[in-house]
Amino acid sequence: MIKVAPSLLAADFCNMEKGVRKMEEAGADYLHCDVMDGVFVPNYSFGFQMIEGLKKITDIPLDVHLMITQPERYIERFAQAGSDIITVHAEATKHLQRVLKQIEQCGRKPAVVLNPATPLDMIQYVLDDVDMVLLMSVNPGYGGQGFIPVVLQKVRDLKAMIDAHGKEIDIEIDGGVNFENAPKLIEAGANVLVAGSSVFNDPDPALAVKRLRESK
Ligand code: DX5
Ligand code: ZN
Predict the structure, then answer these.
(1) Is the whole model's pTM more than 0.90, yes or no?
(2) For ligand 1, is residue 66 a contact (CB within 6 Å)?
(3) Is Zinc-finger included in the keywords of this UniProt record (predicted)?
(4) Is 100's C-beta closer than 6 angstroms to any atom of ligand 1?
């Protein structure tokens, strides 16, 4: 089953609840929440207070993508705020396995994410510690950027790596996902698609979610 995770970065920040309701009506599987600290990425977005607020108004699982340095400092707070999945960048911490265990100990689903240029080797020895691997298909920091084509091969390589490992692990893709590349990503092995602009900017978000989910 393919899951679609609309990114709230593309919502109107002054009308966040409206954006959430729109995505509920559209049948989103997760709400992708992009947390940026202005250091790991050259942009700011929102923090745990937003996650806390979202948790109060919706039952859609919150897929929290932490684009912050040393995420170990804030795992507990993001867990308490109501994150369901917590994804940390392998590039952002010196002790990746420890952070992933920290997420698990907080009762949340641990996931790891790699920037486009980061090799898959970085996560070879933490597959037992994650429920999901996220591959960035843009350099993180902004919505609305173009998909980096070489990531398609990276998805195939990751799928082979996960199959060889034997554990069931979701493969999520984030950045520039659209109707054109979604079928190729799914064929390559992705099963969770993050979509910011392609869902929020579509006049019919429900149809956009359905089209992405059923991409062939
Ligand atoms: C980029 C974020 C993405 C972004 C995706 O730093 O991690 O989640 O919102 O937006 P689109 O789908 O517009 O590339
Ligand atoms: Zn993201």
Answers:
(1) yes
(2) no
(3) no
(4) no
CA 113 to ligand 2 center in whole angstroms: 9
Residues in the chain with pLDDT values less than 50:
none
Is 12 known to be catalytic?
Answer: no
User: Distances in Å between the alpha carbon of 10 and those of 28, 127, 150?
Assistant: 14, 30, 24
Per-residue pLDDT, 135: 99
Q: What's the fold here for domain 3-214? A: TIM Barrel (3.20.20)
- Distance (angstroms) between ligand 2 centre and the Cα of 125 equals 23
pLDDT reported for residue 16? 98
**53 pocket-lining for ligand 1 (C-beta < 6 Å):** no
| Contacts of residue 91, Cβ cutoff 8 Å, sequence gap at least 6 | 40, 114, 115, 118, 122
Model pLDDT, residue 216: 80
